[in-house]
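Entry 14. Ran structure prediction on the chain below.
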Amino acid sequence: MAKVAFLGLGVMGYPMAGHLQKKGNEVTVYNRTAAKSEKWTAEFGGHSAPTPKTAAAGQDIVFACVGNDDDLRAVTCGSDGAFEAMNSGSIFVDHTTASAEIARDLYSTAKAHGLGFIDAPVSGGEAGAQNGALTVMCGGDEPDYTRAEPVIISYAKACRLMGPSGSGQLTKMVNQICIAGLVEALAEGLHFAARAGLDPNAVVEVISKGAAQSWQMENRHKTMAEGKFDFGFAVNWMRKDLGIVLAEARRNGANLPVSALVDQFYAEVQNMGGGRWDTSSLIARLNKK
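Output, structure tokens:
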């Protein structure tokens, strides 16, 4: 049990903070839109605060799950940022999918304040957050991770320290690289099956028992075949993530031709009006041609 704050009550953060409260932790939440904080406390109990700074004061661990690098910098180092209020020895755990660069910058800033900092992006989507079954990839110092892990497990099925600061974000980049390629391949496979006169569901029932099996195939083939995309992880967010991936690849010299191509395919989906569609909507650009 711990005294914790959670900054950011979006699609992911809202249920994650709820799991922390249900596990017996003392939770204080902050959200940029105060009405969301009020809704959360009405549902789960706990406390709300008007700023990241007031939410973070006196907490053992401060969690965050916000939109991007700029949002993360604002809630940590802004005029009402959490770092100024956190006690020496407390830990900041960031679940935002952000750049490895900002993770390393904030790690250094946190250390200068006598704080621990763990970059801890997650995989599993909205369903994983709601079910408390996320996968968490962490970067930082082992003593800080060891203290934070028992609390993180409140909403995770798997959690691992991947290396020094930034390693969690780099691991999440690998995750997104793999997903991008898998979803495009599945989209092309289902599109081909339909054009060949096959029943896509019957095809998947067979091939999912072999080497082609994947989470995307098991969980997305039916809605892809039906053209339903009004759920899940939005294309806009995937493009943000792939932008981070490609920027990091330019820095480290990695060659990612498929990721770059799929990023442009997602740009086409955005131009079709599908920015908020699930990432499985890659099949929509194939079917329109």
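Residues 100 and 166 are 4 Å apart (CA to CA). Will compare against last week's run tomorrow.
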